[in-house]
Write a structure and sequence with these properties.
About 2% of the residues have low confidence. The two termini are 32 Å apart. This protein has one domain. 76% of the residues lie in helices and 0% in strands. By secondary structure, it is mainly α. The protein is globular and about 65 Å long.
Protein backbone atom coordinates (compact mmCIF):
# COMPACT_ATOMS: atom_id res chain seq x y z
CA UNK A 1 0.00 0.00 0.00
CA UNK A 2 2.84 2.40 0.80
CA UNK A 3 4.34 1.78 -2.64
CA UNK A 4 1.05 2.55 -4.36
CA UNK A 5 0.54 5.73 -2.34
CA UNK A 6 4.15 6.76 -2.92
CA UNK A 7 3.96 6.18 -6.67
CA UNK A 8 0.66 8.04 -6.91
CA UNK A 9 2.19 10.91 -4.93
CA UNK A 10 5.15 11.11 -7.28
CA UNK A 11 2.97 10.75 -10.40
CA UNK A 12 0.71 13.58 -9.24
CA UNK A 13 3.70 15.80 -8.46
CA UNK A 14 5.32 15.09 -11.85
CA UNK A 15 2.00 15.69 -13.64
CA UNK A 16 1.55 19.02 -11.88
CA UNK A 17 5.11 20.04 -12.68
CA UNK A 18 4.61 19.12 -16.33
CA UNK A 19 1.28 20.91 -16.55
CA UNK A 20 2.75 24.25 -15.47
CA UNK A 21 -0.53 24.94 -13.69
CA UNK A 22 1.07 25.30 -10.28
CA UNK A 23 4.52 26.30 -9.09
CA UNK A 24 6.91 23.54 -7.95
CA UNK A 25 6.47 24.83 -4.40
CA UNK A 26 2.74 24.06 -4.37
CA UNK A 27 3.20 20.57 -5.82
CA UNK A 28 6.13 19.63 -3.58
CA UNK A 29 4.46 20.81 -0.38
CA UNK A 30 0.78 19.90 -0.62
CA UNK A 31 0.78 16.58 -2.50
CA UNK A 32 3.13 14.69 -0.11
CA UNK A 33 1.08 15.91 2.86
CA UNK A 34 -2.07 14.46 1.32
CA UNK A 35 -0.22 11.23 0.55
CA UNK A 36 1.01 10.95 4.15
CA UNK A 37 -2.51 11.48 5.50
CA UNK A 38 -3.84 8.77 3.18
CA UNK A 39 -1.07 6.44 4.40
CA UNK A 40 -2.34 6.88 7.96
CA UNK A 41 0.13 9.35 9.44
CA UNK A 42 -1.06 12.20 11.64
CA UNK A 43 -0.16 15.86 11.47
CA UNK A 44 2.36 15.66 14.33
CA UNK A 45 4.27 12.86 12.60
CA UNK A 46 4.22 14.74 9.30
CA UNK A 47 5.63 17.77 11.14
CA UNK A 48 8.54 15.64 12.35
CA UNK A 49 9.16 14.43 8.80
CA UNK A 50 9.12 18.07 7.67
CA UNK A 51 11.73 19.06 10.28
CA UNK A 52 13.96 16.20 9.15
CA UNK A 53 13.65 17.29 5.54
CA UNK A 54 14.44 20.93 6.40
CA UNK A 55 17.62 19.91 8.21
CA UNK A 56 18.80 18.03 5.14
CA UNK A 57 18.49 21.01 2.77
CA UNK A 58 19.21 24.01 5.00
CA UNK A 59 22.92 24.28 4.09
CA UNK A 60 22.08 24.03 0.39
CA UNK A 61 19.54 26.86 0.70
CA UNK A 62 22.07 29.15 2.41
CA UNK A 63 24.64 28.36 -0.27
CA UNK A 64 22.21 29.12 -3.12
CA UNK A 65 21.09 32.45 -1.76
CA UNK A 66 24.56 33.86 -1.20
CA UNK A 67 26.13 32.27 -4.30
CA UNK A 68 23.60 33.92 -6.60
CA UNK A 69 24.06 37.23 -4.79
CA UNK A 70 27.87 36.98 -5.03
CA UNK A 71 28.12 36.18 -8.72
CA UNK A 72 25.37 38.66 -9.51
CA UNK A 73 27.46 41.38 -7.89
CA UNK A 74 30.57 40.18 -9.76
CA UNK A 75 28.70 40.55 -13.03
CA UNK A 76 27.43 43.98 -12.01
CA UNK A 77 30.93 45.29 -11.34
CA UNK A 78 32.06 44.01 -14.74
CA UNK A 79 34.83 41.52 -14.01
CA UNK A 80 33.76 39.39 -17.00
CA UNK A 81 33.35 42.24 -19.50
CA UNK A 82 36.97 42.70 -20.70
CA UNK A 83 37.45 39.01 -21.42
CA UNK A 84 34.15 38.73 -23.26
CA UNK A 85 34.79 41.87 -25.33
CA UNK A 86 38.31 40.76 -26.25
CA UNK A 87 37.09 37.33 -27.39
CA UNK A 88 34.48 39.03 -29.57
CA UNK A 89 37.12 41.30 -31.11
CA UNK A 90 39.60 38.49 -31.70
CA UNK A 91 37.06 36.16 -33.29
CA UNK A 92 35.40 38.75 -35.54
CA UNK A 93 35.28 37.70 -39.19
CA UNK A 94 36.23 34.05 -38.73
CA UNK A 95 33.31 31.62 -38.46
CA UNK A 96 35.30 28.90 -36.69
CA UNK A 97 36.82 31.38 -34.22
CA UNK A 98 33.38 32.79 -33.49
CA UNK A 99 32.05 29.30 -32.72
CA UNK A 100 34.96 28.59 -30.36
CA UNK A 101 34.65 32.03 -28.79
CA UNK A 102 30.95 31.39 -28.17
CA UNK A 103 31.79 28.33 -26.07
CA UNK A 104 34.33 30.26 -23.97
CA UNK A 105 32.11 33.29 -23.47
CA UNK A 106 29.13 31.14 -22.42
CA UNK A 107 31.28 29.18 -19.95
CA UNK A 108 32.47 32.42 -18.35
CA UNK A 109 28.98 33.94 -18.33
CA UNK A 110 27.56 30.86 -16.60
CA UNK A 111 29.91 31.09 -13.63
CA UNK A 112 26.97 32.42 -11.63
CA UNK A 113 24.98 29.24 -12.37
CA UNK A 114 22.04 31.24 -13.74
CA UNK A 115 20.81 30.30 -17.20
CA UNK A 116 18.84 33.52 -17.53
CA UNK A 117 21.85 35.77 -16.89
CA UNK A 118 24.00 33.64 -19.21
CA UNK A 119 21.63 34.14 -22.12
CA UNK A 120 21.17 37.82 -21.27
CA UNK A 121 24.95 38.27 -21.53
CA UNK A 122 25.72 36.09 -24.54
CA UNK A 123 22.77 36.39 -26.92
CA UNK A 124 22.68 40.21 -27.28
CA UNK A 125 26.49 40.33 -27.49
CA UNK A 126 26.95 37.59 -30.09
CA UNK A 127 23.76 37.63 -32.19
CA UNK A 128 24.79 40.71 -34.25
CA UNK A 129 28.11 39.02 -34.97
CA UNK A 130 26.36 35.82 -36.12
CA UNK A 131 24.06 37.87 -38.37
CA UNK A 132 26.95 39.78 -39.85
CA UNK A 133 28.75 36.56 -40.76
CA UNK A 134 25.50 34.91 -42.00
CA UNK A 135 25.88 32.20 -39.35
CA UNK A 136 22.88 30.17 -38.25
CA UNK A 137 21.55 31.64 -34.97
CA UNK A 138 20.48 28.14 -33.90
CA UNK A 139 24.18 27.26 -33.81
CA UNK A 140 24.63 30.13 -31.34
CA UNK A 141 21.89 28.70 -29.12
CA UNK A 142 23.32 25.18 -29.38
CA UNK A 143 26.84 26.23 -28.37
CA UNK A 144 25.75 28.59 -25.60
CA UNK A 145 23.26 26.04 -24.22
CA UNK A 146 25.76 23.17 -24.24
CA UNK A 147 28.55 25.25 -22.71
CA UNK A 148 26.20 26.54 -20.01
CA UNK A 149 25.02 22.97 -19.35
CA UNK A 150 28.59 21.81 -18.69
CA UNK A 151 29.15 24.76 -16.35
CA UNK A 152 25.81 23.95 -14.72
CA UNK A 153 27.66 21.27 -12.73
CA UNK A 154 29.01 23.98 -10.41
CA UNK A 155 27.65 23.57 -6.87
CA UNK A 156 25.67 26.83 -6.87
CA UNK A 157 23.69 25.84 -9.98
CA UNK A 158 20.41 23.95 -9.75
CA UNK A 159 21.19 20.27 -10.50
CA UNK A 160 23.92 19.74 -7.90
CA UNK A 161 21.96 21.62 -5.28
CA UNK A 162 18.94 19.44 -5.90
CA UNK A 163 21.07 16.28 -5.86
CA UNK A 164 22.84 17.31 -2.64
CA UNK A 165 19.50 17.87 -0.95
CA UNK A 166 18.31 14.41 -2.07
CA UNK A 167 21.49 12.67 -0.89
CA UNK A 168 21.82 14.87 2.23
CA UNK A 169 25.47 15.70 1.59
CA UNK A 170 27.66 18.76 1.13
CA UNK A 171 27.28 20.12 -2.38
CA UNK A 172 30.98 21.07 -2.68
CA UNK A 173 31.96 17.48 -1.89
CA UNK A 174 29.55 16.31 -4.58
CA UNK A 175 31.08 18.73 -7.08
CA UNK A 176 34.80 17.96 -6.73
CA UNK A 177 34.84 14.68 -8.78
CA UNK A 178 32.87 16.50 -11.49
CA UNK A 179 35.51 19.18 -12.04
CA UNK A 180 37.50 16.85 -14.31
CA UNK A 181 34.30 16.06 -16.24
CA UNK A 182 33.66 19.78 -16.71
CA UNK A 183 37.20 20.39 -18.00
CA UNK A 184 37.02 17.43 -20.40
CA UNK A 185 33.54 18.49 -21.47
CA UNK A 186 34.66 22.03 -22.32
CA UNK A 187 37.67 20.74 -24.27
CA UNK A 188 35.43 18.37 -26.24
CA UNK A 189 32.94 21.16 -26.82
CA UNK A 190 35.67 23.37 -28.27
CA UNK A 191 36.50 20.51 -30.67
CA UNK A 192 32.82 20.19 -31.52
CA UNK A 193 32.62 23.95 -32.05
CA UNK A 194 35.50 23.73 -34.55
CA UNK A 195 33.73 20.93 -36.45
CA UNK A 196 30.38 22.74 -36.42
CA UNK A 197 32.14 25.97 -37.42
CA UNK A 198 33.71 24.22 -40.42
CA UNK A 199 30.30 22.84 -41.38
CA UNK A 200 28.75 26.27 -40.99
CA UNK A 201 31.45 27.80 -43.16
CA UNK A 202 30.61 25.36 -45.95
CA UNK A 203 26.90 26.03 -45.58
CA UNK A 204 27.44 29.77 -45.79
CA UNK A 205 29.47 29.32 -48.96
CA UNK A 206 26.66 27.25 -50.52
CA UNK A 207 23.89 29.56 -49.40
CA UNK A 208 22.47 31.43 -52.39
CA UNK A 209 19.77 33.42 -50.66
CA UNK A 210 20.87 35.97 -48.10
CA UNK A 211 18.83 38.05 -45.71
CA UNK A 212 17.45 41.18 -47.34
CA UNK A 213 18.64 43.24 -44.44
CA UNK A 214 22.38 43.81 -44.56
CA UNK A 215 23.78 43.84 -41.02
CA UNK A 216 27.26 44.60 -42.29
CA UNK A 217 27.19 48.15 -40.88
CA UNK A 218 26.55 46.87 -37.35
CA UNK A 219 29.36 46.87 -34.87
CA UNK A 220 28.87 43.79 -32.71
CA UNK A 221 31.07 45.29 -30.02
CA UNK A 222 29.07 48.53 -29.76
CA UNK A 223 27.36 48.99 -26.40
CA UNK A 224 23.60 48.51 -26.33
CA UNK A 225 21.11 50.63 -24.41
CA UNK A 226 21.04 47.99 -21.70
CA UNK A 227 24.84 48.15 -21.46
CA UNK A 228 24.65 51.91 -20.92
CA UNK A 229 22.10 51.48 -18.13
CA UNK A 230 24.42 49.05 -16.37
CA UNK A 231 27.53 51.17 -16.88
CA UNK A 232 26.94 52.99 -13.60
CA UNK A 233 27.35 49.70 -11.75
CA UNK A 234 30.76 48.93 -13.25
CA UNK A 235 33.84 49.34 -11.08
CA UNK A 236 36.80 49.34 -13.54
CA UNK A 237 39.20 50.83 -10.96
CA UNK A 238 38.55 47.84 -8.70
CA UNK A 239 38.71 45.28 -11.51
CA UNK A 240 41.75 43.33 -10.29
CA UNK A 241 40.62 43.50 -6.68
CA UNK A 242 37.29 41.93 -7.68
CA UNK A 243 39.02 39.31 -9.81
CA UNK A 244 41.21 38.39 -6.84
CA UNK A 245 38.13 38.17 -4.62
CA UNK A 246 36.28 35.90 -7.07
CA UNK A 247 39.31 33.64 -7.55
CA UNK A 248 39.80 33.42 -3.79
CA UNK A 249 36.19 32.39 -3.23
CA UNK A 250 36.42 29.71 -5.93
CA UNK A 251 39.76 28.47 -4.56
CA UNK A 252 38.31 28.11 -1.05
CA UNK A 253 35.35 26.20 -2.52
CA UNK A 254 37.66 23.77 -4.29
CA UNK A 255 39.70 23.41 -1.08
CA UNK A 256 36.52 22.20 0.60
CA UNK A 257 37.43 22.77 4.23
CA UNK A 258 35.01 25.67 4.78
CA UNK A 259 31.21 25.29 4.42
CA UNK A 260 30.11 26.45 0.97
CA UNK A 261 27.38 28.77 2.20
CA UNK A 262 29.76 30.41 4.66
CA UNK A 263 32.29 31.07 1.87
CA UNK A 264 29.71 32.86 -0.30
CA UNK A 265 28.31 34.73 2.69
CA UNK A 266 31.77 36.13 3.40
CA UNK A 267 32.27 36.88 -0.31
CA UNK A 268 29.04 38.89 -0.50
CA UNK A 269 29.88 40.72 2.73
CA UNK A 270 33.23 41.81 1.25
CA UNK A 271 32.02 42.55 -2.30
CA UNK A 272 29.15 44.87 -1.34
CA UNK A 273 31.01 47.51 0.73
CA UNK A 274 34.10 47.16 -1.46
CA UNK A 275 32.23 48.16 -4.62
CA UNK A 276 29.25 50.10 -3.27
CA UNK A 277 30.16 52.08 -0.11
CA UNK A 278 26.68 53.64 -0.02
CA UNK A 279 24.19 51.52 1.97
CA UNK A 280 21.38 52.32 -0.47
CA UNK A 281 23.44 51.01 -3.39
CA UNK A 282 24.22 47.85 -1.43
CA UNK A 283 20.53 47.23 -0.77
CA UNK A 284 19.73 47.91 -4.43
CA UNK A 285 22.17 45.18 -5.51
CA UNK A 286 20.64 42.74 -3.04
CA UNK A 287 17.13 43.58 -4.22
CA UNK A 288 18.19 43.19 -7.86
CA UNK A 289 19.41 39.61 -7.37
CA UNK A 290 17.13 38.52 -4.53
CA UNK A 291 14.25 37.24 -6.73
CA UNK A 292 16.40 34.56 -8.40
CA UNK A 293 18.02 33.62 -5.09
CA UNK A 294 14.77 33.38 -3.16
CA UNK A 295 12.92 31.50 -5.89
CA UNK A 296 15.54 28.73 -5.98
CA UNK A 297 15.79 28.69 -2.18
CA UNK A 298 12.03 28.35 -1.77
CA UNK A 299 11.88 25.46 -4.26
CA UNK A 300 14.67 23.63 -2.43
CA UNK A 301 12.92 24.16 0.92
CA UNK A 302 9.72 22.76 -0.59
CA UNK A 303 11.73 19.82 -1.91
CA UNK A 304 13.11 19.28 1.58
CA UNK A 305 9.55 18.95 2.86
CA UNK A 306 8.73 16.52 0.03
CA UNK A 307 11.79 14.36 0.63
CA UNK A 308 11.38 14.46 4.39
CA UNK A 309 7.82 13.17 4.15
CA UNK A 310 8.55 10.47 1.57
CA UNK A 311 11.57 9.27 3.54
CA UNK A 312 9.86 9.53 6.92
CA UNK A 313 6.84 7.53 5.78
CA UNK A 314 9.19 4.94 4.19
CA UNK A 315 7.40 5.36 0.84
CA UNK A 316 10.67 5.50 -1.10
CA UNK A 317 12.00 2.39 0.61
CA UNK A 318 8.74 0.60 -0.14
CA UNK A 319 8.76 1.64 -3.81
CA UNK A 320 12.37 0.53 -4.22
CA UNK A 321 11.72 -2.82 -2.54
CA UNK A 322 8.65 -3.58 -4.65
CA UNK A 323 10.30 -2.31 -7.83
CA UNK A 324 13.09 -4.82 -7.37
CA UNK A 325 10.54 -7.66 -7.42
CA UNK A 326 8.93 -6.35 -10.64
CA UNK A 327 11.90 -5.39 -12.84
CA UNK A 328 13.98 -8.07 -14.58
CA UNK A 329 16.87 -8.97 -12.30
CA UNK A 330 19.57 -8.24 -14.91
CA UNK A 331 18.35 -4.63 -15.36
CA UNK A 332 18.11 -3.46 -11.76
CA UNK A 333 21.85 -3.11 -10.94
CA UNK A 334 22.30 -1.00 -14.08
CA UNK A 335 19.19 1.15 -13.73
CA UNK A 336 21.27 4.29 -13.11
CA UNK A 337 23.26 3.60 -16.30
CA UNK A 338 20.09 3.13 -18.35
CA UNK A 339 18.47 6.29 -16.96
CA UNK A 340 21.70 8.24 -17.46
CA UNK A 341 22.11 7.19 -21.08
CA UNK A 342 18.60 8.46 -21.80
CA UNK A 343 18.99 11.53 -19.61
CA UNK A 344 18.69 14.07 -22.45
CA UNK A 345 15.43 12.58 -23.82
CA UNK A 346 14.12 12.72 -20.23
CA UNK A 347 14.57 16.50 -20.47
CA UNK A 348 11.76 16.55 -23.03
CA UNK A 349 9.49 14.64 -20.63
CA UNK A 350 10.39 15.83 -17.15
CA UNK A 351 11.20 19.17 -15.61
CA UNK A 352 14.46 19.50 -13.70
CA UNK A 353 12.56 19.36 -10.42
CA UNK A 354 10.71 16.20 -11.42
CA UNK A 355 13.91 14.53 -12.64
CA UNK A 356 15.94 15.17 -9.50
CA UNK A 357 13.27 15.19 -6.82
CA UNK A 358 11.04 12.38 -8.09
CA UNK A 359 13.16 10.10 -10.29
CA UNK A 360 16.58 10.30 -8.62
CA UNK A 361 15.42 9.13 -5.14
CA UNK A 362 13.79 6.02 -6.63
CA UNK A 363 16.81 5.10 -8.77
CA UNK A 364 19.09 5.69 -5.78
CA UNK A 365 17.03 3.43 -3.54
CA UNK A 366 16.92 0.67 -6.16
CA UNK A 367 20.59 0.48 -7.21
CA UNK A 368 22.07 0.94 -3.74
CA UNK A 369 20.41 -2.30 -2.70
CA UNK A 370 22.69 -4.00 -5.27
CA UNK A 371 25.90 -2.46 -3.96
CA UNK A 372 26.02 0.59 -6.25
CA UNK A 373 26.95 3.73 -4.32
CA UNK A 374 24.55 6.64 -4.09
CA UNK A 375 27.25 8.87 -5.59
CA UNK A 376 27.56 6.67 -8.69
CA UNK A 377 23.80 6.75 -9.17
CA UNK A 378 23.74 10.51 -8.73
CA UNK A 379 26.68 11.15 -11.09
CA UNK A 380 25.10 8.91 -13.73
CA UNK A 381 21.88 10.88 -13.64
CA UNK A 382 23.61 14.27 -13.47
CA UNK A 383 26.09 13.71 -16.31
CA UNK A 384 23.54 11.89 -18.45
CA UNK A 385 20.92 14.58 -18.10
CA UNK A 386 22.63 17.92 -17.60
CA UNK A 387 23.74 18.48 -21.22
CA UNK A 388 20.09 18.58 -22.27
CA UNK A 389 19.17 21.31 -19.78
CA UNK A 390 18.78 23.98 -22.45
CA UNK A 391 17.04 21.89 -25.06
CA UNK A 392 14.10 21.29 -22.74
CA UNK A 393 10.78 23.14 -23.13
CA UNK A 394 10.58 23.04 -19.32
CA UNK A 395 13.55 25.44 -19.01
CA UNK A 396 12.34 29.03 -18.44
CA UNK A 397 15.81 30.35 -19.29
CA UNK A 398 15.64 28.70 -22.72
CA UNK A 399 12.39 30.49 -23.53
CA UNK A 400 14.16 33.72 -22.59
CA UNK A 401 17.00 32.85 -24.98
CA UNK A 402 14.57 32.08 -27.79
CA UNK A 403 12.87 35.41 -27.23
CA UNK A 404 16.17 37.30 -27.25
CA UNK A 405 17.28 35.61 -30.47
CA UNK A 406 13.85 35.57 -32.14
CA UNK A 407 13.99 31.78 -32.63
CA UNK A 408 11.48 28.92 -32.33
CA UNK A 409 11.52 26.12 -29.78
CA UNK A 410 10.64 23.40 -32.30
CA UNK A 411 13.42 24.34 -34.69
CA UNK A 412 15.90 24.59 -31.83
CA UNK A 413 15.03 21.07 -30.66
CA UNK A 414 15.33 19.70 -34.21
CA UNK A 415 18.67 21.45 -34.73
CA UNK A 416 20.26 20.73 -31.35
CA UNK A 417 18.69 17.64 -29.79
CA UNK A 418 20.66 14.84 -31.47
CA UNK A 419 23.95 16.73 -31.22
CA UNK A 420 23.42 17.39 -27.51
CA UNK A 421 22.35 13.80 -26.85
CA UNK A 422 25.37 12.40 -28.70
CA UNK A 423 27.68 14.77 -26.82
CA UNK A 424 26.05 13.70 -23.54
CA UNK A 425 26.61 10.00 -24.26
CA UNK A 426 30.30 10.59 -25.06
CA UNK A 427 30.75 12.49 -21.79
CA UNK A 428 28.84 9.75 -19.97
CA UNK A 429 31.14 7.02 -21.32
CA UNK A 430 34.22 9.07 -20.36
CA UNK A 431 32.86 9.41 -16.81
CA UNK A 432 32.49 5.62 -16.63
CA UNK A 433 36.05 5.10 -17.91
CA UNK A 434 37.39 7.56 -15.32
CA UNK A 435 35.53 5.78 -12.54
CA UNK A 436 33.29 8.72 -11.67
CA UNK A 437 30.30 6.54 -12.51
CA UNK A 438 30.45 3.01 -11.16
CA UNK A 439 28.93 0.21 -13.21
Amino acid sequence: MLSIIGLLTIIVIVSLLLSNKVTPIVALVLVPIVGAFVAGFNFIEIGEFFNSGMQSVFSVVVMFIFAILFFGIMQDVGIFDPLINNIIKISRGNVISVAVGTVIIAAIAHLDGSGASTFLITIPALLPLYKRLKMNPYLLLLLVGTSASIMNMVPWAGPLGRTASVLDMDVAELWRPLIQIQIIGLVLLVVLAVLLGMREKRLIAKRLVYDEEDPGTEDPTAPSAEDEKKEALRRPKLFWVNVLLALTVIAVLVWGEVPTGFVFMIGVSIALPLNYPNVKDQMDRIRAHAPNALMMASIILAAGSFLGILNGTNMLDSIATDLVTILPAFIIPYLHIIIGMFGVPFDLLLSTDAYYYALLPIVDQVVTSFGVSSLSAAYAMIIGNIIGTFVSPFSPALWLALGLAGLEMGRHIRYSFMIMWGFSIILFVIAILLGVIGV
